[in-house]
Amino acid sequence: MQAARGGVGVLLVGPRVALHAELGKHAGSAALPIEVVEAADVIGMDEHASDVRSRKEASINVCTALVKEGRAAAAVSMGHSGATMASALLTLGRIKGVDRPAILTHLPAQGGFTTLLDVGANADVKAAYLAQWARLATVYLRVVEDRENPTVGLLSIGEEDHKGSALVVEAHGLLRAAHGQGVNFHGNVEGRDILRGTTDIVVTDGFTGNVVLKLAEGEAKVLFGWVREALGSTLKSKVGGLLVRGALRGLAERMDPSTYGASILLGVRGLTFIGHGSADARAVKNALLRAERAHEAQLVARLEAALAGETPQSV
Amino acid sequence: MQAARGGVGVLLVGPRVALHAELGKHAGSAALPIEVVEAADVIGMDEHASDVRSRKEASINVCTALVKEGRAAAAVSMGHSGATMASALLTLGRIKGVDRPAILTHLPAQGGFTTLLDVGANADVKAAYLAQWARLATVYLRVVEDRENPTVGLLSIGEEDHKGSALVVEAHGLLRAAHGQGVNFHGNVEGRDILRGTTDIVVTDGFTGNVVLKLAEGEAKVLFGWVREALGSTLKSKVGGLLVRGALRGLAERMDPSTYGASILLGVRGLTFIGHGSADARAVKNALLRAERAHEAQLVARLEAALAGETPQSV
């Protein structure tokens, strides 16, 4: 409803009766551009992603089919991440030149945010994937976030070109070769560079990226908990705590993942956004606004154009 | 000098004249148990770790030789990490049953600290290494840090047994098999669990571990910088900031890597500690005290006993 009030037309996919009942609780919902689309089945959080193959009536499959048919501009899900990825890949297919789609997300960083991918779609990767993702993320930042010529860092364990795993050293060579041709390659970056914002984009495999994402979010929570604890530790700090509360609240909001709404599955032929299962209304609204921006910027067509001419590893 | 005042006998390895000149600046140093050992050469931070093979007079080689000969209980270096590892491996050799030594470090966490390894010795690993490291870290925590039956988590991208990269899934099987036999295996843990302290030990490859370490340290710095910024943003928060300064200082100290002094290279036949190049006096003192504790606990002999009967992958 928040997004619809902002002008985004929403197709709400799920059990029609329950969704209408829910909408009915909110005054004014009938006047908003919200349409309910029936989906009798849902893939639960504890079920298998591969179920999307057989359960055509599952809400996520209905969602991605709407995108495939052109009835929806984007699929946005806060449900089963694996099922969302599988359904998007199955229904929408891959962009030519992309071996594997990757999940791209944003982390708060000095000077704004750092764009990180892959944060979990591919635990095992090839060097060529990383080079393709650098291209995809560059187009994404340029057309959706208005960043001109964004810099790309390759996550490694030393800044020198030869540092890192065998995979990373190989990817470094590919990215070096791509520099100036759709990728503004900065070189290797380290864990500390992610929140420093050394580069606009950080490319890594989906295992490391997922660990980074969960560590970064988890650490922010733990540290703010400790700050709160410290502020309550003495009478003096309690009084001071009351005075600084407003200033710290702005900071907490900045660190809140829901600011960025959802991650995008980059590399499929259709817009697909994947959010946290714990997403709140603000996160859902921001995800829908971001989806609309990506659609208006013709992101998928721009990605296809940028990757045309690339030879994927596997066909 | 701080450690020597605490009763640790120190062999200071380096250019004799310069070291004596430095000691001479500090009143009372002559009465402390500090002996200077000549080493004319030093492997600089921008030189190659492999130089330890040819440059026998390099300070790190003199250091590890002192350990090998039994003249020193431990080697402690805040210099070139790669050279320290290479020199220790070359001079001291591996513990039987250990394929590759790993670097173990501690990160502040809820309830104390989390022990993480490998944080950078091995960018490319085999599953068997992770299982060996779990054993080594268990012995370390038990004998040096007095933790009874410490729990071991395997870093992955989902808590379920089958989640993760092919390597992690294989390691999971090995750790599951080792459970109850020298390893108290908790199962998979995620990035967010590291600072939550879900397990005492987190085992991972040296690539992921190094990214985690540098991200965790970097994020703490960035977040505290933002807190400081927020406290200085308005007159009200400035006044409050003065009142909470003391409380936050304790927290900053807790997050300071120098609290833990240095990391230990686990798996070589002799105590070897590797610190930050940017280590301060407190870090060096704490590293020396930790080295003494490990020596008194007969760590290397305990590790050898625990790994006896293990068949390494490579010989």
TrEMBL record, chains A, B:
One of its GO terms (biological process) is fatty acid biosynthetic process. It catalyses: a fatty acyl-[ACP] + phosphate = an acyl phosphate + holo-[ACP]. Catalyzes the reversible formation of acyl-phosphate (acyl-PO(4)) from acyl-[acyl-carrier-protein] (acyl-ACP). This enzyme utilizes acyl-ACP as fatty acyl donor, but not acyl-CoA. This is Phosphate acyltransferase. Keywords: Cytoplasm, Lipid biosynthesis, Lipid metabolism, Phospholipid biosynthesis, Phospholipid metabolism, Transferase. The keyword Cytoplasm applies. Homodimer. Probably interacts with PlsY. It comes from the Bacteria. InterPro entries: FA_synthesis, Phospholipid_synth_PlsX-like. Pathway: Lipid metabolism; phospholipid metabolism. Pfam families: FA_synthesis. One of its GO terms (molecular function) is phosphate:acyl-[acyl carrier protein] acyltransferase activity. Coiled coil: none annotated. GO terms for cellular component: cytoplasm. It comes from Deinococcus gobiensis (strain DSM 21396 / JCM 16679 / CGMCC 1.7299 / I-0).
